[in-house]
Write a structure and sequence with these properties.
The complex is a heterodimer of chains A (436) and B (422). Helices cover 46% and strands 12% of the residues of chain A. Chain A has 17 helices and twelve strands. In chain A, the strands form three sheets. In chain A, strands 1, 2, 3, 8 and 11 form a five-stranded parallel sheet that branches. The chains are: A alpha/beta (436), B alpha/beta (422). Chains A and B meet through helix 13 and helix 17 of A and helix 12, helix 16 and helix 17 of B.
């Protein structure tokens, strides 16, 4: 018996404008509304709308025998609400599928600030509940970044199941087609991506140089059935944009998806499950001890796509350092803008691996070079620091007025107890941008 | 390089300058390309104009004793001529006037050189024709337009295939504003007569298609490489650097190089950060205007104009600079940023350049976008990690751009013609 478990990731970042040094202090519009809208509209047309329609048809046709799971980042949901409400509507029609939780901002916050991570997970939980009426038991971290510590932390947030990459270096001889228990979270279940079968669809489907090209449904169904005897569940985890956007319509990807359920279900022992159905149905076979962070990105399957060079590290450290200042300032709008900067894509754009490692990064990069991505990002951080200072000044002025009115009252302004250095770090510009 | 019949491939190369006499990038390119071709086993006879201008710079003597060319595969043929690199018709007139003045009235009557640069090019062609008839070679390779009449003459005399190598066109030099029709005609005549045309970038390939009507099938792109430089060079700039950071421009101060955009960007930089010094090295017809503009903007104290700089000074300036900027309006290739990268100085380069087609670890700008240029200068001066990252990867990148690559591509072009039985 083999269960097939599809989980699709749906995400689009709020891309930044080419925010120049001269914008600092003068312009607090950080995001490229035009471009973001354009991307959402384009991908909606090529991928989200047609694929949703097809999946809905398949779910109805197979009467309960076909189902899938989704994780939609909070930032993509916001953009659907703003730019393409029809896409949101069509996802609501798919509400019988499984919806997962993740960080609202598709961020790396677990690596830098656990409090912030928790807040972002809660924001996402609420958003999914509001939109789809589901309380998710399953958590997937950004880009399937995972380790023991994360499993333990997420268990503390009440989740039962967590997803990760079935990377060779952690599995060794073991198969990704079983349910595991994270070493540090015995009440949790760990499900691993079968990257070979997933990438056959996500990356290799239209590759004419691939020995298995063209990939037909009967060939693929045979590969799935081969898991019989070596596991219970084949986890096919991939970006939803695979359908129609990464693999264009003319590659035949939609026909493939349309005929796949029927072909797999031809074998009476096979079925399709959502992530939580799989974990309910099968017992775990072993404990997995994963100390180092891993992810589903690039060949390295580590963090190097986002935190692999000094630009990325400088930008990320500065971002989370400033985050504490932003929270102290207590301005919800500024906090929201800052949180949009935590989206992992901003760091992906600064990756310079692609100069030698092919063009996957380049395809998704709105900048000419990773350096431009860094400059825009850092310029925005500089502006945020200025906004924080302005808010602080205002608060101080207000506090001073109050103090004058009640001279004996103690200063309760949160800044009085701030432990964060106000000196700019070497990553910030030592320039007075308020000067005109 | 084996060719059919087992003989070495022999090239008759027509150029007009070679280092150490330094007028611009083309001579440097000819030198390194010839050397790399020799290293690939080709025999090269290099024919170049040799006139009073160059004799004054003790040019040939140095070349002849240069042992860098392996196994005497390289022979130099000097042709007495007044032609020089980057010579405009007006420059030639001036050189010719000086030449005449140096002669006694009696000598003037039988002057050696042609009365204008075009006639001189044809005189050069007549001399090259004679050389070509005596020499043994398989292919003619001519660099830029003053040698084109000579190249055509050599081809007509011998029937050997001709490759012309276009480094720059009249359109790039003049910004398209005042194209000299006779120069244009000479360029086009060479391109049309050639069996194949080598260009130094896709940028200039498009130029040839658009402005010269050269068919695309005839054009081969061979990007230039970087000249290995002495990294150990040292210059003490600690006094300046105590207070200021240095932003550098090196190049002829002419319309083509965009010096005016550099100045306007500098003004914007100084509005945010007054502790920056701008060095503009080079001379050219726009220099007085540029100095005037700098004064007008009230930033003269932030500028240094060292005038013409030699190779060693170029290396020193690159070494001490924090940022190098090449804001060229139209740059068929542009080797100057490569020299900066050799000295580990991050470069900002115009997208309107051929070199931007081969570089990843630089910041690219549109020459007209002074705000973007200024913004990127400030970013490089102030974001430590950005500066370090580009410095590191840029200096590695430039070291991978060796002349072996272009030489091999040229050989492919030669073989294409020879195998075609031309």
């Amino acid at each position: 018996m083999v269960s097939v478990c599809f989980y699709f990731q749906v995400h689009q970042p709020f891309r930044l404008r080419k925010y120049s040094v001269f914008d600092i202090g003068n312009n607090s519009e950080y995001f490229d509304e035009y471009k973001n809208k354009e991307v959402i509209k384009k991908v909606a047309k090529k991928c989200y709308l047609p694929t949703n329609k097809l999946l809905l048809k398949l779910i109805r046709k197979h009467k309960g025998k076909f189902n899938v799971s989704f994780s939609l980042s909070g930032v993509v949901l916001e953009q659907f609400e703003m730019y393409a409400p029809e896409v949101l509507h069509s996802f609501k029609e798919l509400a019988r599928t499984g919806f997962l939780n993740e960080t609202y901002y598709h961020s790396l916050s677990f690596l830098f600030d656990k409090e912030e991570f928790k807040e972002q997970v809660m924001l996402h939980k609420q958003k999914i509940k509001d939109l789809f009426g589901q309380e998710a038991k399953v958590f997937r971290n950004t880009e399937l970044i995972y380790n023991n510590e994360l499993a333990n932390f997420v268990q503390g947030l009440g989740y039962k199941i967590i997803l990760a990459e079935g990377a060779d270096h952690i599995l060794g001889w073991r198969s990704p087609n079983f349910i595991y228990i994270p070493k540090t979270a015995e009440n949790m279940r760990l499900m691993l991506k079968n990257y070979k079968l997933s990438d056959d669809i996500a990356f290799r489907f239209s590759n004419k140089g691939w020995i298995e090209y063209p990939l037909t449904v009967d060939k693929y169904a045979q590969w799935i059935s081969r898991a019989n005897g070596n596991g219970y569940v084949v986890n096919l985890f991939m970006d939803y944009e695979t359908f129609g956007e990464h693999q264009w319509e003319d590659t035949g990807i939609f026909e493939f998806l349309e005929h796949l359920p029927k072909e797999i279900l031809k074998h009476p022992d096979n079925n399709f499950v959502t992530v939580s159905e799989a974990a309910d149905r099968y017992d775990p076979v072993a404990e997995l001890d994963i100390h180092h962070f891993m992810s589903w990105a690039d060949i390295e399957r580590d963090l190097s796509a986002w935190l692999g060079n000094s630009l990325q590290n400088a930008a990320a450290n500065e971002l989370y350092r400033i985050g504490r200042l932003v929270k102290e300032a207590g301005n919800p709008k500024l906090l929201e803008k800052w949180r949009k900067l935590t989206t992992s894509d901003h760091f992906y754009y600064m990756c310079i691996k692609w100069f030698s490692d092919g063009d996957v990064h380049k395809y998704f990069n709105p900048y000419d070079t990773p350096y431009e991505g860094f400059i825009a990002f850092m310029n925005v951080l500089n502006d945020i620091v200025i906004r924080v200072r302005d808010i602080k000044k205002q608060k101080k002025a207000v506090a001073k007025q109050k103090q004058e009115a009640y001279t004996h009252q103690a200063d309760t302004s949160s800044f009085a107890h701030s432990f964060i250095s106000e000196h700019p770090s070497e990553n910030l510009l030592d320039i007075d941008f308020t000067k005109k | 390089m084996e060719k059919e019949g087992g003989k070495n491939l022999k090239v008759l190369m027509l150029g007009w300058e070679l280092p150490p006499f330094f007028a611009g990038g083309v001579g440097v390119v000819c030198y390194h390309l010839s050397r790399a071709l020799c290293e690939q086993g080709l025999d090269i006879t290099y024919v170049m104009p040799f006139g009073p201008t160059m004799a004054r710079s003790d040019y040939m003597k140095v070349m002849v004793t240069d042992h860098l060319f392996p196994k005497m595969r390289f022979r130099l043929k000097e042709v007495d001529s007044l032609l020089g690199a980057y010579l405009t018709p007006e420059d030639y007139d001036e050189e010719f006037r000086k030449y005449l003045m140096s002669l006694s009235p009696k000598e003037r009557a039988k002057a050696l050189y042609g009365p204008n640069v075009f006639q001189e090019a044809y005189l050069f062609a007549r001399k090259v024709r004679l050389i070509a008839m005596q020499e043994d070679f398989d292919i003619i390779h001519a660099h830029d337009h003053w040698t084109f009449p000579a190249a055509i003459a050599a081809k007509e005399a011998t029937g050997k295939p001709l490759v012309v190598h276009v480094h720059i066109t009249e359109f790039d030099k003049t910004g398209g504003a005042s194209v000299n029709q006779r120069v244009y005609d000479m360029e086009r005549e060479g391109m049309y007569a050639a069996d194949l045309v080598i260009v130094v970038s896709n940028f200039i390939k498009q130029r040839l298609i658009d402005n010269y009507g050269v068919p695309e099938w005839k054009i081969r792109v061979v990007h230039n490489a970087a000249e290995p430089m002495d990294k150990s060079i040292f210059h003490d700039a600690s006094k300046i650097k105590e207070t200021d950071k240095i932003v550098l421009f090196i190049g002829r101060i002419t319309l083509q190089k965009g010096p005016d955009y550099f100045v306007e960007a500098a003004k914007k930089v100084l509005e945010k950060d007054p502790n920056v010094k701008f060095i503009m090295a080079g001379t050219g017809d726009m220099l007085p205007r540029i100095i005037e503009r700098v004064a007008e903007l009230g930033i003269a104290d932030r500028f240094i104009f060292p005038g013409f700089v030699n190779r060693e000074e170029v290396a020193k300036l690159n070494k001490i600079a924090d940022v190098f900027v090449m804001p060229s309006v139209s740059e068929p290739f542009g080797i100057v940023p490569l020299e900066a990268m050799w000295q580990e100085t991050p470069a900002i380069i115009s997208r309107q350049s051929g070199v931007s087609e081969v570089l990843n670890h630089v910041l690219k700008v549109d020459f007209w976008d002074i705000s973007d240029i200024a913004s990127k200068i400030l970013a490089l001066l102030h974001y430590r990690s950005l500066h370090d990252q580009i410095k590191h990867h840029g200096s590695l990148e430039v070291r991978t751009l060796t002349w072996e690559g272009p030489a091999k591509k040229c050989i492919e072009v030669y073989n294409e013609l020879i195998n075609k039985g031309m």
